[in-house]
Amino acid sequence: MGAQASTGSRARAGRAARGALAAAALVGAAGLAGCTTSDAQPSVVDQGYVAGDGSLVQLAPDERGEPVELAGTTLQGEAVDVADWRGAPVVLNTWFAACGPCRLEAPDLAEVSAETADEGVRFLGLNTSDGAAQGIAFEEQFGITYPSLLDRDGEGVLALRGQLPPSATPTTLVLDPQGRVAARFLGPVDPSTLRTVIDDAAAEAA
């Protein structure tokens, strides 16, 4: 009986320790989830699997909506329309220069963009706050070579309504070769997970 009581005590202690660790992990994830412009935090859908410091939701092909329609002018003043990029995956990422999680993930996005460029994968940023000069300085600091749309008026975010949680930056969307949202990351992306999601989307075109 003494051995059974000791085992039960150890089991209860183990469960308590695991509960404390889980609570600490949730607090840490919440702190790194992203930048918001209000006190209200976006809800996180607990589907798929956890990616880095944020959550990832993947959609099966028969669960996806209509192709994304997004066009605008880049920080460098060039016109971009994602409809021109159909046939290969497209990665859309919302950001602004003063956003800490955006700065955290920027080198990873630059790296994955460079690794997948020869595969036809396109990346496009959506800058929601900065002027052109500030945004370009951010790109140069982190080695980002893919374009970003200026979206201070919110037209790009409006075009993605239903896909982007309100006030949640960064958010990253992966579009399938047809231009439909195949996956959504909330918070900074994990580069290896992002690469896997891109590869999954690219395989659909094979």
UniProtKB/TrEMBL annotation:
<dbReference type="InterPro" id="IPR050553">
    <property type="entry name" value="Thioredoxin_ResA/DsbE_sf"/>
</dbReference>
<keyword id="KW-0201">Cytochrome c-type biogenesis</keyword>
<dbReference type="GO" id="GO:0030313">
    <property type="term" value="C:cell envelope"/>
</dbReference>
<keyword id="KW-0735">Signal-anchor</keyword>
<dbReference type="InterPro" id="IPR013766">
    <property type="entry name" value="Thioredoxin_domain"/>
</dbReference>
<dbReference type="InterPro" id="IPR036249">
    <property type="entry name" value="Thioredoxin-like_sf"/>
</dbReference>
<dbReference type="InterPro" id="IPR013740">
    <property type="entry name" value="Redoxin"/>
</dbReference>
<dbReference type="GO" id="GO:0016491">
    <property type="term" value="F:oxidoreductase activity"/>
</dbReference>
<keyword id="KW-0676">Redox-active center</keyword>
<keyword id="KW-0812">Transmembrane</keyword>
<dbReference type="GO" id="GO:0017004">
    <property type="term" value="P:cytochrome complex assembly"/>
</dbReference>
<protein>
    <submittedName>
        <fullName>TlpA family protein disulfide reductase</fullName>
    </submittedName>
</protein>
<feature type="domain" description="Thioredoxin">
    <location>
        <begin position="59"/>
        <end position="203"/>
    </location>
</feature>
<keyword id="KW-1015">Disulfide bond</keyword>
<dbReference type="Pfam" id="PF08534">
    <property type="entry name" value="Redoxin"/>
</dbReference>
